[in-house]
Amino acid sequence: MLISYFFALVTLYVAVVVFHKKALAIASIVASPFVRLYVKRRIKSGKESETRFHERFGIPSKPRPNGPLVWVHAVSVGEVVSAIPFIQELKNINNNINILLTTTTLASAKIVEERLKNLVMHQYTPFDVFTWIKKFIKYWNPKIVFFIESELWPNILYYLYENGIPIYLINARISNKSLERFYLAKKWLNISLFNVFRTIYVSSEEMRQKISNFGTRDIVIAPSLKVVSTKLPVDNGRATRLIHKINGRKVWMAVSTHPSEEEIILQIHNELEKTFPDVLTIIAMRHPARATEVASICTSFKLSHRVHTTSFILKDKIIEEIYILDKIGCLGDFFEIIDTVLVCGSLVPNIGGHNFLEPLRFHCNVATGQHIENFTGLYQQVKTICAMLKNNEEIIEFVSSSFKGFSRDSSRLDDVTSTGIWINIARELARKVAD
Question: Do domains 2-223+421-434 and 236-414 have the same CATH topology?
Fold first, then answer.
């Protein structure tokens, strides 16, 4: 009996290794009922669109226009924002190109609506179930596909590759943990997703070497797209109202916070309040749907608070200790009038940090925590104008110094954010679409 089980397992393993593409497709189809249940739970929790969830099953909600179509896939807000100048350049070079932009989150869809509405068609990315992605790709029939950063789905990539559709990985940013998983998949299951790409663009020699270990040859070093992303938009009317509501108080902002980071921010607020009794702390969560959760944390700290979307239209001044920003698309209004910004996702391990260039473009005093694994290369370019802080005491000192008038010279940021290389890359890729 044991021998039979052993040979069955060996046979299964050999089948997966030799026919891994079919095995992945079959496994995804078998799992599809559970994916549907997962989507239903996400709808109930407010994480999936109630009206457009069918797009996640590969069912389109918009007609496919005539002419060549480019598919750009970005995961969430950060990837969408970083892709904006690349998409704009594609359209500038060839306005006849139709661009389909797919994302996975509600917040990213809002950014697309606000900043790319007239340039792209937006759809939510289908889950990597073979029948769904086959339906999706056949319908949209892209001439060329660009994946932004790090979300790689095997059934999508293999189907595109086997149908001769060119795929490019832009701004490749793969964590060490993901690289380990890719290595094991290649070693034991003969799966190597990196080899399906025509070209992979990375922002550092270190990342180029790591990916080249998978046998990929065409790897190009180019600046991070986050470096060339455009300045966030500002609504001058909202910014003026915000100045009135703050009413001269000492104010600082923690942006892109994640669970467990808000507690750190509130601890720091309590310490700052001892020296600056009128201090106002603004918390902008990475995921605005967590506003109620963050408000509960404020209550547990016995700190008065208000939520942006339920109070900004009021004319009264902010007298609370904590202001919770739960709206996408208005960070520029805050950066325009606030001098002190802490970029989170970096205060605790296993998140990897977030883009500190956005507030730097407004010449704010900017700091980040030490856990910035996803931005180490970028940080080296701006370390003289962006502080890296290791603990609460250093954050308190940074905010206090900023309140007292200390300012970092961010005038050299323009040198870091030169767009020339990516303009040339966009032109080259746009020609490929036109051919």
Answer: yes
In 10 A of CB 220, how many CB atoms?
13
- For 189-221, the pLDDT digits (tens) are 667 778 889 888 887 788 888 888 777 778 888
* pLDDT at residue 266 greater than cutoff 50: yes
Q: Under a CB-based contact definition with an 8 Å cutoff, are residues 135 and 107 in contact?
A: no
Q: Quote the CA–CA distance of 41 and 62 in Å, as a whole number.
A: 25
Residue 325 near residue 308, CB atoms below 8 Å: yes
The conformation of residue 303, written as its DSSP 8-state character, comes to -
| Dihedral over Cα of 265, 270, 276, 282: its sign | positive
Q: Count of CB atoms within 10 A of residue 328's CB?
A: 19
Residue keyed to tokens 């009038």: 337
Domain parsing of the chain, residue ranges:
2-223+421-434, 236-414
The mean per-residue pLDDT over the stretch 412-433 comes to 64
CATH architecture, domain 236-414: 3-Layer(aba) Sandwich (3.40)
DSSP string, 227-261: HHPPPPP--HHHHHHHHHHHTT--EEEEEEE-TTH
Residue 346 DSSP one-character state: -
Matching residue, tokens 């805050």: 334
- pTM for this prediction: 0.73
DSSP string of 201-225, one letter each residue: EESSHHHHHHHHTTT---EEE---H
- From residue 358, alpha-carbon distances to 237, 254, 302, 325 in Å are 20, 13, 32, 16
Q: Identify residue 193 by its one-letter amino acid code.
A: L
Look at residues 158, 133, 134, 143 and name the one whose alpha carbon lies nearest to residue 70.
143
If phi > 0 it is left, if psi is from -120 to 50 it is alpha, else beta; for residue 165 that is: beta
Q: Which residues are paired to 280 by β-bridges? A: 251
Convert the pLDDT of each residue in 55-73 to its tens digit.
999 999 999 999 889 999 9
Higher-confidence residue of 322 and 2: namely 322
Q: Parallel, antiparallel, or unpaired: how do β-strands 322-325 and 305-307 relate?
A: parallel
Fold exhibited by the domain 2-223+421-434: Rossmann fold (3.40.50)
* Angstrom distance (rounded) from CA 242 to CA 333: 8
